[in-house]
Amino acid sequence: MHETLSDAALDQLYREARSYNGWLDKPVSEEQVHQIYELAKMGPTSANQQSGRFVWCRSQESRERLAIHASEGNKDKIRAAPVCLIIGYDLDFHEQLPWLFPHTDAKSWFKDEDLRRENAKRNSALQGAYLMLAARALGLDCGPMSGFDQDGVTRDFFADQPRWRADWLCSIGHGDRSSIFGRSPRPDFGTFNTIV
Amino acid sequence: MHETLSDAALDQLYREARSYNGWLDKPVSEEQVHQIYELAKMGPTSANQQSGRFVWCRSQESRERLAIHASEGNKDKIRAAPVCLIIGYDLDFHEQLPWLFPHTDAKSWFKDEDLRRENAKRNSALQGAYLMLAARALGLDCGPMSGFDQDGVTRDFFADQPRWRADWLCSIGHGDRSSIFGRSPRPDFGTFNTIV
After folding, report:
1. With an 8 Å Cβ cutoff, are A56 and B14 in contact?
2. Pairing mode, strands A193-195 and B52-57
3. CA gap B19, B180 in Å, rounded
4. Dist CA B31 CA A38 (whole Å)
5. Which residue is closest to B142 within chain A, CA to CA?
6. DSSP reduced 3-state for B3
């Protein structure tokens, strides 16, 4: 039986966490990147498909290259971040299932290309959320973005992987509190929820 | 500047959390359902779109009704769970943006139906992950599932909302440790990650 996490932890993960537009001049180490992934990879994906594919743009050069594909409002957010993560997915993730889900023939469940695309996108999105909350759990901040040219980033960063696709981006670092605005309104429970 | 959460918290959220197939006979209260959502709704969605739509099947009757649409292997998991959550999305989430993202005309960004569907699915998946980790943070366990008839659940549970779609399911409760098997292998960092 587990306890509820402390209020400080719930604040850090959810209630006081924000999406940052600007970043303190404080790096994110390769070790921290590994720590984030080592936590996030434990999160559930359907048939342990682990369909997410991740490129962590940590050098100035890689972030400049990524910024080229971003909308005007996102270019500087990418350039200034210690790390900007590309969250992608593998349209042929099922090829990995014989070792990721070894106790049954799960690969055969995903013969249909549309089903595979749907799964690849849903589960890589879940993994991106696990990564963001893992980063927050480790004391870092996030700034997710979807304003960019997915095809351009796919061509540029997944050139050697013809079945991988870029889906969204997330800057990671120590957020600059002066870079954020008031929080957008959150719905009451009853607006989008029903208990039946 | 935030601290890293305690090892016990990281274990509870990620390292020792598992997807459960069976459940202890211990209810999840309506108050706990609200607590889960109140945390999860703080997580980021693109332009605060909050595209997820959630039906929490808490009564035996509703879970029986849901189980009808599930694959053979998932029917009993749904019937036996204290709560089974339907994670859906609203194809017309943009209609809500004037109040969810009030400082600019974000509704006009989502005129394209394909872009809207992609956003609705990606962001509701993120929200589902926030909900699962919030449940774990509150001491509960999860059992996500995608083996069911999405169209059937949409017709049955979103009948009054013609633009809402059921996407996946997640049982929530106090997991029965005798109901789980060994953990499926997790990839090393280098398998699906690159730092550039």
Report:
1. no
2. parallel
3. 7
4. 33
5. A44
6. coil
The rounded percent of chain A whose pLDDT value lies above 90 is 98
Taking the whole predicted model, whether its pTM rises above 0.90 is answered as yes
**Residues of A with Cβ-Cβ distance to B138 under 8 angstroms:** 4-5
CB contact under 8 A, A192 and B38: no
Helix (H) or strand (E) segment spanning residue A85: strand A83-90
CB-based contact B184 A14, cutoff 8 Å: no
Crossing angle for the helix pair B113-137 and A113-137, to the nearest 10 degrees: 50
Inter-residue contact B87 to B128 (CB < 8 Å): yes
Residue A138 has what pLDDT?
Answer: 98
Angle (CA) A36 A38 A41, round 5°: 100
CA atoms within 13 A on the CB side of B73: 7
Question: How far is residue A84 CA from its own chain's centroid?
Answer: 10
- Nearest Cβ partner of A129 from B41, B129, B139? B129
What is the distance between the alpha carbons of residues B41 and B124, in angstroms, rounded to a whole number?
11
| Contact between residue A24 and residue A173 where contact means Cβ atoms under 8 Å apart | yes
Residues linked to residue B52 through DSSP beta bridges, in sequence order = B89
A interface mutation test: which of B42, B55, B138 has the most A CBs within 10 A? B42
Each residue's pLDDT tens digit, A3-29: 999 999 999 999 999 999 999 999 999
> Is residue A75 a contact partner of residue A152, using CB atoms and an 8 Å limit?
no
β-sheet with A141-145: strand ranges across: A141-145, A164-173, A83-90, A52-57, B193-195
CB contact under 8 A, B189 and A34: yes
The three-class DSSP label of residue B45 is coil
Q: How far is CA B48 from CA A135, A142, A192, B99, B103, in A?
A: 20, 15, 14, 10, 11
Cβ contacts (< 8 Å) between A144 and chain B: which residues?
Answer: 44, 46
| Contact between chains at B42 and A186 (C-beta distance less than 8 A) | yes
Name A83's bridge partners.
A172
- pLDDT of B1 > 70? The answer is no
Strands (E), chain B: 52-57, 83-90, 141-145, 164-173, 193-195
